[in-house]
Amino acid sequence: MIRLFGYRSSLSLIVWSLVGVALIVCFFSIVHQSDTRQSRIYFRHPSATRELEEIEEEHFRLPPPHKANPRAVKRRGPHRSPNVIDQYLEESSEIHALFFPDERTAVNPTKVGNDSMYFYPGRVWLDTDGHIIQAHGGGIMYDHITAKYYWYGENKDGPTYQAHPKGTHRVDIIGINCYSSKDLWSWTNEGIVLPGEPTNVTHDLHKSKVLERPKVIYNDRTGQYVMWMHIDDANYTKASLGVAVSSSPTGPFSYLYSFRPHGFQSRDMTIFKDDDGAAYLFYSSRDNTELHVSRLTKDYLNITAAMRRILIRRHREAPAVFKLERTYYMITSGCSGWAPNKALTHAADSIMGPWKTLGNPCVGGNRFFRLTTFLSQSTFVLPLSGLPGTFIFMADRWNPSNLRDSRYVWLPLFVGGLTDEPLNNSFGSPLWSRVSIYWHRKWRLPEDWKKGYV
Ligand SMILES: *[C@@H]1O[C@H](CO)[C@@H](O)[C@H](O)[C@H]1NC(C)=O
Ligand SMILES: *[C@@H]1O[C@H](CO)[C@@H](O)[C@H](O)[C@H]1NC(C)=O
Ligand SMILES: *[C@@H]1O[C@H](CO)[C@@H](O)[C@H](O)[C@H]1NC(C)=O
Ligand SMILES: *[C@@H]1O[C@H](CO)[C@@H](O)[C@H](O)[C@H]1NC(C)=O
Ligand SMILES: *[C@@H]1O[C@H](CO)[C@@H](O)[C@H](O)[C@H]1NC(C)=O
After folding, report:
1. Atom 9 (ligand 4): residue with closest C-alpha?
2. Which helix (DSSP H) or strand (DSSP E) does residue 16 occupy?
3. What is the pTM of this model?
4. Of 31, 184, 293, 351, which one's alpha carbon is 20 to 30 angstroms from that of 280?
């Protein structure tokens, strides 16, 4: 009995010691993991960006809601009273005026004063000729050959109308505009680099159709600038991708063709060029219920066979993809037409997925702002080469009743802030840094943002 007990106890001693060793190993690996995470979190933070990482609150008093108009209630159904967003979208409302300040406050590079180089999210923004910048749903490419940035976006400088009573608000296709800059603040109009088609009604770019979210990347092998875009008809039933090329960043781009990737619908989309020269396409598919990611061919003119479905049943659109060290990040919006909604950040170790959702990146402002992405929708995230971990978040503040007056919301985005909610699956799977977009009423780029490019 005693011997047997002794045998048993030494056996259990061994078992427990093994468990103990395993726990210690596990503990150290977690400590090690969180150490690398800490070092990831704090590797950057030069004092240059400290000011931009301060939380800035915004206090505005929203006017009291209008009395519900019985017709509107009928239209919206009994369960929805007209909310602040509905009012904000009406051009004549007080709330609207608060977020679409008139041209007197325009950001104006032709007027040199103590405001120069400051970004004012939501204000009218003029180019170096003093004209309003028309580059909606856009993206920016840095061109090493000319050492300039090029901003491509939709020219929406036409009347807004509905093609039929239930149709979405639209502007006829005018074309894709390009602006160039060395400082990201004063932009020179390079003109329409891909024009709409005025007469041929069967052409993809006929003015009655839809041309959105142009993105351009440079192909080092072919020396061509390649533009990808969303091509649709007025009812958004074509749901296709378009491709155009040019030998110059300022065009003209020749339109090649449109197609449905792997036979799937494609609406909001973006492309991302990785450090190794491989480029990828992201698009909202299957009635915007999910995103698909696919690698482009080496010439960037087509997609390869491999495709992954990501964020399935999440209903996300307006993807903007960026990378820091070896982690890929993406900001997306929800799907609520022209109305703003809450952004989410996603991250992945491999660009083809799996992608995990981290949460809402918006910091500061107030709750209303954070739940509406500062009343805007993501379109692009631009890395600042001199400040690793620092990016510009570019978004559109849409004005659906007068789309040409839609505004730009550019804000600093940082990778590396602390997470505000515990991330799921921290055991065994990667611990990603928090992505934060900081609200600022006015802000400018810190010193050294350009290092490494010039
Ligand atoms: C400079 O700033 C002051 C105070 O902020 C302002 O009153 C003044 O009009 C500004 N001057 C110019 C030229 O913008
Ligand atoms: C109109 O556009 C279609 C599609 O791009 C093209 O096939 C056709 O040749 C064009 N017609 C004319 C007259 O240019
Ligand atoms: C769009 O839908 C409306 C209503 O269903 C229809 O009348 C119109 O012909 C459609 N337009 C196009 C371009 O498909
Ligand atoms: C793109 O690739 C697919 C699959 O290889 C092919 O069927 C299609 O013709 C290609 N498109 C173009 C425009 O080359
Ligand atoms: C983490 O998991 C919980 C429960 O499974 C879920 O409610 C929460 O939204 C998740 N958080 C994130 C950031 O995905």
Report:
1. 302
2. helix 2-42
3. 0.85
4. 184
